[in-house]
Write a structure and sequence with these properties.
mainly beta; 6-stranded mixed sheet; single chain; 118 residues
């Protein structure tokens, strides 16, 4: 599975941003998809994930109520809608796929930088 992320950028505090990640490959349609992030000097953090067959998506406590993950199966694309952004949301966001745990994933996309300015 190959993952191509896009949508990062510079946004002001309280603003919104949408990240997209297109999955391709033979098994892309049947893979879990999610997002991690890593800020400078910090460990990588699982932000949101959609598990195939899962009842509801997972969102980390730090983003719950502000971020929303969704998936367009026809396009093999997962989205991360981020609103009420805070400076602490500044990080490189990575699309992830396959077997996903709280610390790692089977497949990775390239990172996309999100910078929230105060």
């Amino acid at each position: 599975v190959q993952l191509q992320a896009s949508g990062g950028g510079l946004v002001k505090v309280g603003g919104s941003l949408r990240l997209s990640c297109v999955a391709s490959g033979r098994t892309a349609r049947n893979t879990n998809l999610g997002w991690f992030r890593q800020a400078p000097g910090t460990e990588r953090e699982l932000v949101s994930v959609m598990i195939l067959g899962g009842i509801s998506p997972y969102h980390a406590d730090s983003v719950r109520g502000r971020f929303h993950i969704s998936r367009d199966n026809a396009k093999n694309t997962v989205y991360l809608d981020m609103r009420m952004l805070k400076p602490e949301d500044t990080a490189v966001y990575y699309c992830a796929g396959g077997s996903i745990t709280t610390t790692t994933a089977e497949y990775w996309g390239q990172g996309t930088l999100v910078t929230v300015s105060s």
